[in-house]
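FAQ: What does a ligand-bound record look like?

Like this one, built around flavin-adenine dinucleotide:
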Amino acid sequence: MEITKMFGKRPVMSLEIFPPKGNMSLKSVLAIIEAVIDLCPDFISVTYGAGGSSRELTVEIADIIKNRYGIETLAHLSCIGSTRDEIEALLAELRSKNIKNILALRGDPPQDFDRMIQVKADYEYAKDLITHIKSLEGFYLAAACYPEGHIDCVSLEEDLQFLKEKVNCGVDFLITQMFFDNNLFYNFQEKLAALGIDCPVSAGIMPVVNKKQIERITELCGTTLPPELKRLLSVYENKPEALKEAGIIYASEQIVDLLASGVDGIHLYTMNSPKVAAKVYTNIKNIRGSFTHED
Ligand code: FAD
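The answer part, i.e. the structure of the complex:
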């Protein structure tokens, strides 16, 4: 099913999982899928390792979610350092498994990335990948957006101009980078409206359960940790269970506020922790249910 068609009736609830890395086995990811499927998300997205490192696994996991469990899936696909032939081969594979919803990304250059590879490659920005996929029949496209601006951008205003260009290349809906201050998202929504970017936007929410992990992630992607969240992190730093609970409550409260403000969708970054996702979903169960009944 075309994910875009889910928007508008009620908030679209989605989850993100990533393919196994390090010591993690495919079997353990299958257990994660089974656990999150019980939460009845509208769709599950599957990330794509930097530089295509998880290429086969992304397709395999998306295939399992869609064709074994019957849940709609969004396959992430990044283009940095790839050739058109490589992307077309991957698209053919996705098509053969009836996976039609794609989150089209530029991706991050790997640390040892040689600028020359990029020059020779066929894509510079996500919009180039979007234009390419759009020229083929039968795919539906999502793209990433950044309420605080992308880490490499000169200003949020410039990033928004590039976002408009990207959306105009054929994006059906957007998913945001994680944010921890809803006001940043509401300001972003106003700027999108002012620019005439009117496709649905799912808000990316990450429950914070580990101080070091979130500090590393936010440093990499430039997301602000607001003072109230920093306070939780410092007070509960050495009390892992308390920190986890506090992080889950913080994320749940963000979601409650977003739902009340009429957000198009909530995309939960699960970090492959179904227990955390389940606790967030339990906290918002009745609120989510109140929308479902209006279908
Ligand atoms: P773009 O939209 O191409 O933007 C990249 C940068 O280029 C921005 O600074 C933008 O302002 C600038 N720019 C855009 N167009 C132009 C132009 N015409 N001229 C000059 N500058 C321009 N990464 C992965 O590797 N795998 C994943 O699965 C993955 N999933 C993600 C999911 C979400 C929801 C999000 C928000 C990010 C995800 N990422 C993932 C990270 C993403 O790949 C990085 O943030 C990457 O650096 C940017 O990708 P993009 O598609 O947003 O790039």
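Follow-up question: can I read anything off the structure? Yes, for example: The beta strands are 12-17, 43-46, 72-78, 101-105, 140-145, 173-176, 201-205, 265-269.
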